[in-house]
Amino acid sequence: MAAASSLERLQAGGFSVGLELPLDNDWSSAARHAQSDRVPGEPDMARHAELAKLADRLGFRALWVRDVPLYDPSFGDAAQVFEVFSYLGYLAGITNDILLGTAAVVLPLREPMLTMKSAASIDQLSGGRLLLGVASGDRPVEYPLFGRDFDSRGSVFREQVTQLREWDAGFPRGLRLLPAPLQPRLPLLVAGLAQQSPAWIGEQMDGCLAYPGSPSEHAARVAAWRAVAGPDKPYISFIHLDLADDPAAPMQRHRFGGRVGRNGLIAELQALREAGVAHVGLHLRRSERPVDDVMREIAEYVLPVLHATA
User: Fold this and answer.
1) In whole angstroms, what is the distance from residue 78 CA to residue 233 CA?
2) CA 24, chain centre distance (Å)
3) Alpha helix ranges (H) inside the chain
């Protein structure tokens, strides 16, 4: 029997919970007022390896890494700082089971064959754990610095998706791109529409990476996704979470998420599952509590409910 693909593992049981890197809380009130030599939005990576290993041991389903090539103070977010494929290679070496996802690689900024080689390398090094999220990019300032045209990024995105699907089929005789991915078909998950039509996205992509929202907002988006993608391709989203000390604390929504106790978090995740969301990545940079404490509480009280009864 063939090993389960990373996409099958993500959806095992019908619903799963992961984490979005970086695993720090530099958007908390204490961190915002602390003295630091880091630029605004640059995370503290001192404990990144320790916390990634902890996430793996605790049973979170996936770690998600963003692709932010350049720090732009107008955005004020440096993501996890490290280059996305280099970092995934490191994470592959220090974890055993947790899936490794990109959310998402900006294809038009990258040389396509090197993107393919990097992705295949990560898939091999991780034992087939790669989830390749892809996007067309939304930061115009980056494109001229990379010698790329912002306005044509949609057509470039389509061309690179074709290359990823066909792999080295168009190479001159005898030439191959090594290594090949461990998975027979690398799962491609799209962030947004990538300058494409919904119909093209639904046909070509294996899953959807959606912006955070409330359960009712996701229900409408899931319906739109199902209309073009069919019943089986997963819809994935994220929550910016500040987990309250009080388990019974009600949800106080903020942009992209909210502050809530674990009971309310369970209810929110159950509502998202009912809305058709297959996986949620938790983003903890707003956390007022230590990140490892939050991870342990979620693993003890939340994951058994959602992963066991999905």
Assistant:
1) 30
2) 16
3) 6-11, 29-33, 48-58, 84-94, 112-125, 142-145, 153-166, 198-204, 215-229, 262-275, 291-297, 303-309
Closest by CA to 102, choosing from 133, 146, 145, is 133
Phi, psi (rounded to 5 degrees) for 287:
-60, 130
The C-alpha atoms of residue 208 and residue 193 are separated, in whole angstroms, by 9
- Angstrom distance (rounded) from CA 36 to CA 157: 38
Instruction: Give the H/E segment covering residue 17.
Output: strand 16-20
Supply the pTM of this predicted model: 0.96
pLDDT in tens, 210-225: 999 999 999 999 999 9
Element (H, E) at 280: strand 279-283
On whether the CB atoms of residues 281 and 104 are closer than 8 A, the answer is no
Cβ contacts of residue 8 below 8 Å, gap of 6+?
A: none
Model confidence band, residue 1 (pLDDT cutoffs 50, 70, 90): low
